[in-house]
Design a protein that fits this description.
This is Alpha-L-iduronidase isoform X1. Keywords: Glycosidase, Hydrolase, Signal. By secondary structure, the protein is of the alpha+beta class. It folds into three domains: about 160 residues, Sandwich (Immunoglobulin-like), CATH 2.60.40.1500; about 220 residues, Glycosidases (TIM Barrel, Alpha-Beta Barrel); about 90 residues, Immunoglobulin-like, CATH 2.60.40.10. Helices cover about 25% and strands about 25% of the residues. The strands form seven sheets. Strands 1, 14, 15, 16, 17, 19, 20 and 22 form an eight-stranded antiparallel sheet that branches. Strands 2-3-6-7-8-9-10-11 form an eight-stranded parallel sheet. Helix 8 links the parallel strand 7 and strand 8. The structure holds 2-acetamido-2-deoxy-beta-D-glucopyranose (NAG) (7 copies). The site of one 2-acetamido-2-deoxy-beta-D-glucopyranose has 4 residues, from loops. The site of one 2-acetamido-2-deoxy-beta-D-glucopyranose (NAG) has 4 residues, from loops.
Length: about 625
Amino acid sequence: MVASLVMYLAALIPLQNNSHIVNEPYYQLPRFWTNTGFCPYGEIKRESLKSSLFSESVQMNLMHLAALPTGALTHIRIHWLLELVKFIQYTQAGVPVYDFSDLDEFILNLNDLGLYPVIEFMTDLDGILISNSDIMNDIWEDFSYQVTKRYLNLLGAKNLVKWRFETWNEPDIHNYNILNFTVEGFIEYAMALRKGIKSAGRMSNKPLDLTLRGPAGLFKSKRNHPLCWSLIKSCNDQINDCPINVLTYHRKGQGLATEVLEASSKLLKNIYANYDNIKMLPVSNDEADPITGWSTPQDFYEDVRYATKLVYIVFLHWHAKLNYREFKYLETISHDNAFISYHPFEFAQRTLLAHFRMNNSQPVHSQFIQKPVYAALSMLSKLAPVAADIEVIALSSPNDVLWLLKTSSTGNKPLYVSWLLLPRENTEKLENFTLHRQLPFKSGSVETFAFVVELLEQKKTDPAYIWRTQARSRPFPDAMERAAMRYAQTPRLQASGLLLMPEFSLNISGLQLPWILLFRVCSNLSPVLKQPEAPTITKITIGEIFISWREAANTTNCLKTYEVWFQVNQTAEWSFISENWHLPYPSFQYAPINACVNGFFKVRAIDFFNRKSNFSDAIEYIEMSV
Ligand SMILES: *[C@@H]1O[C@H](CO)[C@@H](O)[C@H](O)[C@H]1NC(C)=O
Ligand SMILES: *[C@@H]1O[C@H](CO)[C@@H](O)[C@H](O)[C@H]1NC(C)=O
Ligand SMILES: *[C@@H]1O[C@H](CO)[C@@H](O)[C@H](O)[C@H]1NC(C)=O
Ligand SMILES: *[C@@H]1O[C@H](CO)[C@@H](O)[C@H](O)[C@H]1NC(C)=O
Ligand SMILES: *[C@@H]1O[C@H](CO)[C@@H](O)[C@H](O)[C@H]1NC(C)=O
Ligand SMILES: *[C@@H]1O[C@H](CO)[C@@H](O)[C@H](O)[C@H]1NC(C)=O
Ligand SMILES: *[C@@H]1O[C@H](CO)[C@@H](O)[C@H](O)[C@H]1NC(C)=O
């Protein structure tokens, strides 16, 4: 608790003596938005959840999430995950013995993908809770201990400190509260979890202070939502006995990003007005989406509009954290958008990817197209470690307003500047303009600077638009149509080159609204990019593969694009198969027309100065026939 407080306070102190920054306070920019979640489809029964979580489409979806640039997504919150644990028997001492093998498999895969779970303690534990209701709390304490201890042993302390543990999702909602928690029962359950997790943490070689979050509540009226309100009341009454270290809640908008922040602000003010003692608890809106109902189709989910809403939500929370008391202790927000869309709403649900279930092909398989919101997460991952407050740029017409987030490297690291710019939410018309800016550096004789401008633009970097116009919204787009959509799924490389003067000027005229622009500058003193790890190749269908590779953290700021190379056999020439593709993320779907995908693959990274990294090791792919 104390440690995290210090961290949040420190984060809000403007940084001084920063040679890269002039005239304006900059602050540490915590990556508070790198979280997602979903609920697996199917009945809340172990076998059904198991087949859902291990299905090809869920696994492939996770693979895409993991193929974002490093750090774009770090945590994934999955309802009912612990239902995968099976009760076997009691020991003679009466301690439950569980079979963790399915959970192990899921967790180890997640770990390989570089994603951390948010473990929600929501499971009926095969019915043993209900049949032993008198010792429910002992079972929870032991279970949370067993889960935590197990993965501490398997994955190590360094990994486990990044995990998040949370109480039951939205416990006041009857569909979730399948155990019929009472107010007392719920608080005792949270206390039991906290004890179990804590004692597991103490078993580490170097004791870990593992914490619990909760109550993941909707916090509607106190009468209708007694569980989450009672939990915070009990924390307020006895702060030292409070089972949670981070207060989690859910607030969404009615379609607008600004409404997410307003709803959140209202709730937090209400909480603090009544429960003053918990005002220093870090808070997290772990479902901070523009509108409720992930599956309810919305036009804006299809294209750059959702991408901009997500970026607005992040911008608004950054501004609020710096300026509004009730957001001072904001720890994180999460987007609940790791779902898998279904026909006929391929693009129109709250997802990062569009999903096509190719029932017409042999074998039936899933095709995923990355939506602009996926690209937006990747752009956000390219921000630098410190940031100024959001700058509002007013153009000559009063309705024309742009938002700019300026971020920078610090201290004596080679200069890296990253700016994210977009028109205000729901801007319908924008005058033509050229943005002029002084940049925070001096040209020297040794140091030179290069820049890259990338753009997400409605109807241009917009796979849904291509699907609607070129593929006539067909449920089974063909290979050419899928390739056309994939061409449009990454930001467009708008401009790049050397910066001769510390000035930046960009003519942004006639762009389709909405759009998001990322402008980055790198110094030639930054090291040549690291050699990427050898790629992983996943079969999509016959003659089609998904190639992805891991990036080392914080080494790819100056990445312009990746190149993917292929050779049929070890004596054949290497060919540059991603030529003409802008690939700012570590993945590439390869589906050559009339050619075989058997052979060797390797990748390399190109930076702003067109310096090439070493090639990764080559990896061989041999197609299995069905
Ligand atoms: C919870 O209550 C519902 C409705 O009253 C009932 O159907 C269900 O069996 C109860 N569940 C448990 C675990 O007691
Ligand atoms: C990468 O940078 C972020 C933000 O600056 C920082 O929080 C994180 O610890 C860094 N990670 C590594 C592996 O250096
Ligand atoms: C494909 O088949 C599944 C299972 O029968 C069905 O749910 C889905 O709607 C079908 N998809 C399309 C695009 O027809
Ligand atoms: C900006 O670009 C537009 C179209 O690309 C052009 O018509 C206009 O003259 C340019 N403005 C300036 C100031 O160069
Ligand atoms: C802005 O520029 C675009 C492209 O050059 C042009 O089509 C459009 O008419 C211009 N709009 C205004 C308001 O001048
Ligand atoms: C390797 O591929 C080349 C080009 O397709 C082909 O000409 C050659 O025969 C192949 N060599 C072997 C050993 O298969
Ligand atoms: C590239 O590989 C060469 C030869 O193995 C090695 O000497 C060099 O350090 C590598 N460069 C980078 C940037 O990793």
